[in-house]
Request: fold
Amino acid sequence: MRMYDIINKKKRGRQLSEEEINFLVEGYTKGEIPDYQMSALMMAICFQGMDEQETLHLTLAMRDSGEVLDLSAIQGIKVDKHSTGGVGDKTSLVLTPMVAALGIPVAKMSGRGLGHTGGTIDKLECFPGFSTALTTEQFYENVNRIKVAIMGQTVNLAPADKKLYALRDVTATVDQISLIASSIMSKKLAANADAIVLDVKTGNGAFMKTEEEAFALAKEMVQIGMGSGKQMAAVVTDMDQPLGNAVGNSLEVKEAILSLNGLGPQDFMEVVYALGIEMVLAADKAKTAEEARVLLEQTIHSKAALDKFAEFIETQGGDKRYVYQPELLPVGSIQLQVMNTEEGFVSRILAEEIGLASLALGGGRLTKDSEVDLSVGVLLNKKRGEIVHSGEALATIFANNMEKAKEAYGRIVRAYEIRQQPVAEVAMVKGIIRNGIRQ
Ligand code: URA
Reply:
């Protein structure tokens, strides 16, 4: 088999066979196929696409390029949750203890943030001592004992995807739906939970700018998961403004703790409940969405989810006092209010600009090795639909450096769109695909 023939075949729009896909993934992972040939193939896929079979074969070949976790040591239906990435997305911090408090095992792999979107691991590291560097044995043991564990990518999951994603990133071949679907799902399938719930974001702060693209991605990922025997659900949610009010690591952790105390922002909690319902249904703990929602609400009202979160933080080495006294969490020494200059209604808050403001403050990573300042970020005082008067604060910046705060200020001003007319309410949940069926 020759890579040249495979590239040529895809260039002409023909279907690649399972053998050809296995050959190219294996060859590329081992370094036998050079970057220039793989780049040519990725570009051919961008123009010609891949069908369902090809996408599944590519995903499975990438999954099998590294370790596939064996979760059989964990009792019950294991559920995992994945978000395609957004600004202010602290969903996992609230959702995982809620679900675990219902006795559902949550075995989750998480990543660090890169660029303008934050990562769950960085947020969790706001708790002194907390570590996601678990061995697989500790991971299984923790899930069995307390029903939740979050592990960083300490095992070699889907190395083919890692190499290929780095190549796509520099060859303008990231934004092809089948390539994104196979990339995300190869890692999820290697993490090997029984049920996977996907939060597919749509809007200006998301990968998928339109609902149509987001549904197409959701559908492909659900198909891949079902094709490999997993229970699957995807919820398409709004990312046309940041989720909740807090953006930045410790600010987001504080908001997560507020949410676990029943004081979460409404837009954020809507997404948490929508995803939680899918996790509860997948784990067979409820028969209907309504029943699942009641169970989830009870974990908040009874503080069972808050206590589960504290238990989880402590089990992974963190200081659980911070859960009950969030005022201990670090906050930037400079607080600067972003003032509004016109009367009207907030019609949009460009999520990407807010994410970039937090990045400019030092709250994110420009490269994989950047240091993150956990104490900085942006608190949005006004969200979409709210009335604003001249002289009111739109947002508060938390910084440790005035120059950086000023740069963030400019971005936040640009992010806010103010209109004279009232703004219609926007649904946070655009739709759900449950086991292949649009709800
Ligand atoms: N996230 C991934 O893991 N892969 C992609 O291709 C895009 C986003």
Remarks:
- The mean pLDDT is 95.
- Residues 100 and 147 are 5 Å apart (CA to CA).
- The pocket of uracil is lined by residues 165, 174, 179-180, 183-184 (CB under 6 Å).
- The first strand starts at residue 79 and ends at 83.
